[in-house]
Design brief:
533 residues, alpha+beta, 5-stranded antiparallel β-sheet, 8 helices
């Protein structure tokens, strides 16, 4: 039943500026307050008092029983009385690590809320505002993904203005092509065309600049190798370096970088993968070779899996994955000792939107289709997702589904030529390219890291009319048939490009560990960004 409006519900009592109320007299207000609150009670009227507190049991012997209320119990509103949607909204303003480790200790209701994967899925989607992850997984670790994603977003917030930039330019006298972070980012190795592998102590950045460069590995008088150092890989404190002199050398960082093994091959070593039981090399003579680093190292098997040079290589407990200039991706089954798959990426069709493109996934087999002008140059694998960059500047995502790799997404991330380095994790994605840019994104469906568009042309981009290439082998040279050419402007790409001085060199590789990001500039220097912890 609708009640008649009372005096407080008078519509004219809200905002009526036509007849303003007279300003009260402050002296009259003060006198009224004193007479109402501070004046002694009138005779015959008992003042209102709070109920007396019961004495502690130590003094009275037993607590005084509380009187039972005959009326219904009144429950005061609290945090837990809010609906779950509001609790999730409140938790969104708290750090993900605090929500995961502290809130479950408060009460069972918050513990159940935190243990629900839907809580973390909604939190991640709130951050990226796009489908996440790219590859759907049944046992996806949503809490870990949220923590890493939020750390990544906070570290690169405000255009990365809180990131410290260092340029290490005094260690090599030729182009740096490979880089590797060790021990959580405290140490760094760099391989160069001056044939040296240098060890850097990144803990000395900003403290003792003269002590950042530790030494060059090896006992040779002039250099670590007799050819260009092209690839690096590590397992715990053991490191291996591959060179164009057809050798792989093994180093023990726990023993001050002493050499403990050497493999002499027949062709240049272009890529490496180091596992506890095997060491795999991809070479210029189209072969993938497996060694046992625990015995010698000893040669286990060598297969010519491709018809051209092997450019990218990864291995896990079950597979050896290799990409080649022959436009194929080969998956080798270690247990069956045979080729499991031979894949070729189909043509990119159905590109969506300016700057951010998604190609329709397609799985083609070279036995029935001609080769394409696209091949993989770098890979990053975190089961079940395999991310790979090609010579066209495109990024391909493969999913390992019950031992079978399938191409599920192809992205145009904005690079205008070859993607030479990639680092992918649950919450971060770093790519480098011969277009002289380094791109940083959250690891969602390549949604922009920042809520604005950053121009594609950056200080590290070449001047109009310039060409970017690494003068080594033909597979790294831009070709006229590529989509993008220098001087042709592309639409703005929403992402973040790290701030760095103008560099005429091409970033070769990138590595991220902890709060450090290191890129091999392709020149004489290492580019280092130390993010806020």
């Amino acid at each position: 039943m609708e009640l008649p409006p009372g005096p407080r519900e008078d519509p004219c009592a809200w905002d009526d500026d036509s007849d303003p109320e007279p300003e009260p007299d402050p002296d009259a207000q003060a006198e009224a307050y004193v007479s109402r609150v501070l004046s002694p009670p009138q005779f015959g009227l008992a003042p209102l008092r709070a109920p007396p507190l019961s004495a502690p049991a130590a003094f009275s012997g037993a607590p005084e029983p509380r009187p039972t209320s005959k009326g219904p119990s009144v429950q005061f509103p609290g945090l837990l009385s809010l609906p779950p949607e509001l609790l999730l909204e409140i938790c969104a303003y708290l750090d993900a690590r605090l929500v995961l480790h502290v809130l479950p200790r408060v009460c069972r209701a918050l513990r159940d809320l935190v243990r629900d994967h839907v809580t973390w899925r909604l939190r991640a989607q709130r951050r990226v505002r796009a489908p996440y992850p790219v590859v759907e997984e049944e046992d996806f670790d949503w809490p870990a993904a949220c923590i890493e994603l939020e750390q990544h977003l906070s570290r690169w917030a405000e255009d990365g203005r809180w990131a410290e930039y260092f340029c290490l330019a005094d260690g090599h006298f030729a182009s740096i092509d490979s880089v590797l972070l060790l021990q959580g980012g405290t140490l760094c190795l760099s391989g160069s065309r001056d044939r040296n592998v240098n060890l850097w102590d990144l803990r000395q950045l900003g403290v003792e600049p003269s002590r950042v460069l530790v030494k060059a590995l090896g006992t040779q008088k002039n250099s670590t190798h007799k050819g260009w150092v092209w690839s690096l890989a590590a397992l715990d404190h053991r490191v291996c370096s591959g060179s164009w002199d057809s050798t792989v050398k093994l180093w023990d960082m726990a023993a001050d970088g002493q050499q403990f093994g050497e493999i002499k091959g027949k062709a240049a070593v272009l890529c490496l993968s180091y596992r506890p039981d095997i060491l795999v090399t991809g070479t210029y003579d189209k072969k993938v070779t497996v060694y046992d680093p625990r015995a010698g190292p000893a040669l286990l098997k060598s297969r010519r899996l491709h018809s051209s040079a092997v450019l990218a290589l990864l291995a896990d407990d079950r597979h050896i994955i290799s990409g080649s200039e022959d436009h194929t991706l080969v998956v080798f089954d270690r247990r069956a000792n045979s080729v499991l798959q031979r894949l070729q990426v189909g043509p990119a069709q159905g590109l969506e939107g300016p700057g951010l493109h998604v190609a329709q996934p397609e799985l083609l087999y070279p036995s029935s289709l001609p080769q394409l002008d696209s091949y993989l140059l770098c890979m990053s694998y975190q089961e079940p997702q395999l991310w790979a960059g090609d010579n066209q500047g495109l990024l391909h995502v493969f999913a390992n589904r019950e031992g079978c790799f399938q191409l599920v997404r192809t992205f145009d991330v904005g690079h205008r030529s070859q993607i030479t380095g990639i680092k992918h994790s649950l919450g971060a994605l770093y790519t480098t390219s011969t277009d002289k840019t380094i791109r940083v994104r959250p690891s969602d469906r390549l949604h922009p890291l920042l809520a604005r568009n950053t121009p594609l042309d950056f200080a590290c981009c070449p001047p109009p009319g310039a060409r970017a290439h690494r003068p080594t082998t033909d597979h790294l040279h831009p070709k006229p048939s590529q989509r993008a050419k220098w001087g042709k402007a592309l639409p703005s790409m929403p992402c973040w490009l790290p701030r760095a001085p103008l560099s005429p060199h091409v970033p070769a590789q990138i590595c991220a560990e902890g709060n450090l990001v290191v890129a091999a500039s392709g020149g004489l220097s290492l580019e280092v960004w130390r993010l806020q912890a």
